[in-house]
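User: I'm new to structure prediction. If I give you an amino acid sequence, what do you actually give back? Let's try with this one:
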Amino acid sequence: MHITNMTQPNGESSQNSNLYMRLQQSQNMRANIQNISQLLNTGLSPEALDICVKLLETGVHPQALAEVVTQIRREMAALETDTQ
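Assistant: Good question. You get back a string of structure tokens that encode the predicted 3D arrangement of the chain. For your 84 residues, that looks like this:
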């Protein structure tokens, strides 16, 4: 694979570099959050954890989110015991 440096007069190469760095930081942050989640034994899947993080980023109150997740788990457990 051959990568060429396509520096544009308008600084597009710099913008691409910044986007790459933000993507790398985002991926590192996501991996760290997933590791913390596993260490705390939250039981959240990577997809559920991503949704929670996105909700927090939009301003959802952390305690309210935790209460909703806990309530959903209780209701799911109740449904599972009812079907068995």
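You can read the tokens as a compact description of the fold. Here is one thing that stands out. Residues 34 and 40 are 10 Å apart (CA to CA).
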